[in-house]
Amino acid sequence: MPIKSEKTAAAGEGGPRRPLFALSLRAGQILLPSLLVIPSLMLFVYLLYETTKISRAKIQQQFAVDSAAFIQMTDYVNLFNRTAYVNGAFPYRIFKEAYECPPEEPMQMASGTGEKCPYDMLFEAGAIPKSKSDVKGAQPDTLDGSGKWEIAFDETARPEFKDNPTGKTDTPVFHLITQDQGVKIMLEWGSAIGYYKFYSQVYSLLGTVETSQYTVFERLTDGFSFFKKSYFLNSGTCESEQAQSCGNDGIYSPNGFGASSNKIRDGSNFHMHYIQKIIFYAKVFTGSSLPPYYLGKSNPPMDMTTMDPKGLFQLATVETAPLIRFGEGLDVYQGWDAPANYFNINFNLLAKCNETGRPCVHAKIAAQCPQLKTGDNNCVWPNPTPKYQTRLYP
Length: 394
Fold this sequence. Notes:
By secondary structure, the chain is an alpha+beta fold. It has helices at 20-24, 31-99, 118-124, 179-184, 189-222, 225-235, 248-251, 320-328, 347-350, and strands at residues 8-10, 17-19, 107-108, 115-116, 130-131, 151-152, 171-177, 270-285, 293-297, 302-303, 312-318, 330-335, 360-368, 389-393.
């Protein structure tokens, strides 16, 4: 009878039994898959790391250019909104509170019937703007909740300001109190001088405010310092000696901040309008019964260029074309250099943008006044509505 070995392994219930040394011979079979799987796994880890590294760099660049574009556009929004205040709300409220009846006493008409409030007299002469929804004798309109501030001059007296002027519109001689008003209204000469002084002081102050805020705007947008500083601090890709040029790709992109057509400049597409001389009429009382008065006239006309060589400020406007472009949005293409990677793939060549010649991130930034819901994006004049907002498109 053959002798059976005791070193056997059961293959299953009632099945054939295999020797244990047969299983030990297959232990080396895991080596071959390991030689393929482990290197592939390592390559996957490296690929994941390098992908994360370049994605992180791109996200940082996108954040930096978004922040820089938003901060720079705020300068334009501030100028548009502040100019709208100077054009409409400020003079409307100042003269409404100063000359509305009541508290001001109305003046009698020379015909003996009727009366005229000084506030209405100045508006009808085209000297001041007022809200179209203004209520006579009431406090100035509360316009915060209104989407459209309809503040305007009398169109008959100042037709040049009915719409947005296409260029600089100065008035050589302006009649603060017209001859017809001087004849029909019982306005005494001393009171007329008081109206002239207050009027010239207010608009001189408004002109100083507008000139100052434009000067600040011009300095901030001449070299686009806010954009450069913001991008320099957030991008982490520029050395200290590059601070003045850091971000130039984004600034001087096609249809960017630095494009000549997008620059807001006085004398080009931004205009401040002035009066050179003022004439007014009023009654000069003689102290006798016949005649009791005669019609006086400021002669020679009051020379406003003695206060400012340009004259007495009236209004500031921005031409329609740049306002439309700012409403549609400016393009910022900022180039950056991709970091080196383990696989020696030249992303600076493979992922370069046409606008920069290297990898880039893009931001579209706009200054919009959506309240008017018009295509010209004009809330400066007419309908000066200081509700421009900065909008960043993803």
